[in-house]
Fold N-acetylglucosamine-6-phosphate deacetylase.
Amino acid sequence: MTTDHPAITAAVTQALAAPPRDAAIRGARLVDARGVRDHAWVVVRDGTIDAVGTTDEGFDAAAVGVEDVVEAAGRTLTPGYVDIHAHGGWGASFDDGPEGIATARACHMVHGTTRQVLSLITNPLDVMERNLRVVREQMDMRPDILGAHLEGPFLALARKGAHDPNCLVDPVPAVVERLLAAADGALRQITIAPELPHGMEAIRAFAAAGVAPAIGHCDADYETACEAIDAGATIMTHMFNAMNGIHHREPGPIPAVTADPRVTPELINDGFHVQNPVVQMAWGFAPHRLAFVTDAMAATDCPDGHYLLGALDVTVVDGHARLASNGAIAGSTLLLEDAVARAVLELGFAAAEAVEAATLTPSRALGLNRPNAITGAPLGLIAPGYAGDMLLTDPETWKVERVWCAGRPVA
């Protein structure tokens, strides 16, 4: 657990503001969604991967014109992790303004999450609009922020989880327009209970605006979920959590999502939100489509104790966050670093597939696995033309040791 948060936050922020540095890594075990390659090397120029090879023989640093050569010595080289659903870390939330964003992003960055969608919780609409504008401003200043995810206010009351019930509203067109205007292009995804009045209309409106609607915090039946997918929903918010489950005569939304290749289900792989047998079952339901997310709140990488989730009191015991008022689960304290490690070491998943769930799959869910206006170079693979987002990890523990974001060494 890291303790000098202000100094590390300042260092990460400074590193991200600097120009990218050309570099090479050699002698690595390269793992990405395409498989595992030993004795690998990679060259990064101008923030983008320029060349990749799978043998050190003939690698000449002088010939490729790179002075900074990192000897991996057999450590695992992966793409940077991409988290499309997280709320904070190191005692700060993404709703807490620029300082809170910087602190929480540093928390996840040093643990390997090079790019992140900043999830904002349900608040009064004017607060949500203000927070969206802050994310918009920060996107222009930092390459590691992909935009915002609104987890609310369009949630089913019965499945609200740790969201303030007084701030939930139906997705009427006027509210949809307010949120889109405040985001000014920064909104990447939004969680919607599709059975709400105007739910389908809102899904169509957000999809038309380039936002990924996510089915979640809902009581939708199977038919409604299928209709939502046809209307444009392409993500399921933390599958199994805050929704009606699978029943043999009332299938609910999960079978609709897992059967449809247009949808990416999120999964919180901490063994608590979703226990191991169900994670393994889900792995078979939607192969190569599960996106690991953290749903991490402010207590992430912090001691147990009392924290805030918006205006709600949260108690963290043994790393598990619950509302002090009623014991409802209130996000997680998970890091993607740990989600990948437990997938490989505890669940026995293939390394390439575990890495895929934290890199290429979440990137693809938002269209970032190809050249785009948000990151420029695509995310999710160690391949020429992709962003210089890379991690060196311990091959035994999967703990992250070195981090590069857009060609910038940040940790």
User: Anything to note?
Assistant: The CA atoms of residues 23 and 68 lie 5 Å apart.
